[in-house]
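INTERNAL TRANSFER SHEET
From: sequence group
To: structure group
Subject: HEAT repeat domain-containing protein

Please process the attached sequence and return the structure record in the designated field. Keep the field labels unchanged so the import script can parse them.
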Amino acid sequence: MGERRKSWREIDKMRDRGGGRGRRRDDRSALERALYDRKLRDQYLKEAERLFQGPKGRPEHGRDLQAVHEAYGTPKFQAAARHYLETYGLPDEWGTLLLFLDLEGAADVVAQAIEALCSLAPEKGPVERKGLEGKLRVLAMTSPEPEVQEAAEAALEDLG
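Return from structure group:
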């Protein structure tokens, strides 16, 4: 009658040995394998970008940025904003730039922030642009510094 049936024990042994289906050995270096792994590649790219960001790539930048946002509307805002400016320069983020429009005694910084916001405005939606226009109207009417008033009026003409 034919062939004898294999026991479960024999079947398991064959599976453990691999039965001729040997695994292909990966001869690539660890770096090459990592570059093909999406997660590791993204991590390496983030670290490389941080190197080129200078001071803004450090972990302290996030803490200082958060301190500016949390201090907004309090007496500590001026000190937090000035510390951020001295350490990192003018921010790149839309929301933080809007906060810097309320900085007192720094007309040149406010004018630079207005300029930066106007360059970012085309990428923003209608709600953000309307908010910026409203803020600029208020600055043009109420700012005690003529430089800020002029910058706000010029920006309003450019936007509208």
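Handover comment: Residues 90-160 form one domain. The mean pLDDT is 85.
Transfer complete.
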